[in-house]
Amino acid sequence: MIAAPPPPSAGEGPAGILGALLTIRHRLTRLLERVVMIAVALLTIDVLWGVVTRYFLGEQSRWTEELARVLMIWVALLGTSVAFSVKGHLGVDFFVGLFAPGAHRLMRAVAHLVVIGFTLSAMVWGGFRLVMETFQLEQMMMALNVPKGWVYLAVPISGLFITLFEVESLAETIMNAEPQEGC
């Protein structure tokens, strides 16, 4: 679990709104971290069971490989959401550093808007369409006998979390000169 300071208390005005957003982000991050930890634990057990069945029982369980793939997709996408929440994602500050110091805040705001635009269009809207079409086509995972739409649902869910965290980061950038790290 990534250590983050407790969220500030909400007051009145813009600082209160920012405090409320930070509290929401803090709580959602804790929830996502727990979900990712459980998924990683299940992934570990699944892979170990696959190894045991393959080497000690002579034939690998059919479902272990497919379940490992599903869990890895969910871990990667929800883990990405956690990284956006704690500002632990990859950031390229080289070009921002070329601008005058006064423009850094504007460039951070533009970067947040680009991420929000991408996640809303590609991950949320596109992911939702992918999930709906997969359910309509009744595509199934053969070994697990589960609709593939449940696997793809990780894309729009992760997109919603990333969008929410980026909106909060955008508000933080607009209201403060320097964003808080690690929340």
Q: Biggest sheet, strands in spatial order?
A: 1-2
The SS-based structural class is mainly alpha
Mean pLDDT, as a whole number? 86
**Proportion of beta-strand residues:** under 5%
Rg, alpha carbons: 20 Å
The total domain count is 1
- The secondary-structure element order is HHHHEEHH
Largest sheet: 2 strands, antiparallel
In DSSP terms, counting alpha (H) and pi (I) runs of 4 or more, how many helices?
6
Quote the distance from N terminus to C terminus.
Answer: 12 Å
Principal-axis shape equals elongated
Secondary-structure topology with pairs:
Layout: H1 13-55, H2 62-85, H3 94-98, H4 104-136, E1 140-141, E2 146-147, H5 149-152, H6 154-175
Antiparallel strand pairs: 1-2
Helix pairs in contact: 1-2, 1-6, 2-6, 4-6
Q: Which labels suit this protein?
A:
mainly alpha, 183 residues, 72% helix
Overview of this structure, please?
- By secondary structure, this protein is mainly alpha-helical.
- The protein has one domain.
- Helix content is 72%, strand content 2%.
- The chain contains six helices and two strands; from the N terminus they run H-H-H-H-E-E-H-H.
- It has helices spanning 13-55, 62-85, 94-98, 104-136, 149-152, 154-175; strands at residues 140-141, 146-147.
- The protein has a two-stranded antiparallel sheet with strand order 1-2.
- The longest helix has 43 residues, at 13-55.
- The protein is elongated and about 65 Å long.
- The two termini are 12 Å apart.
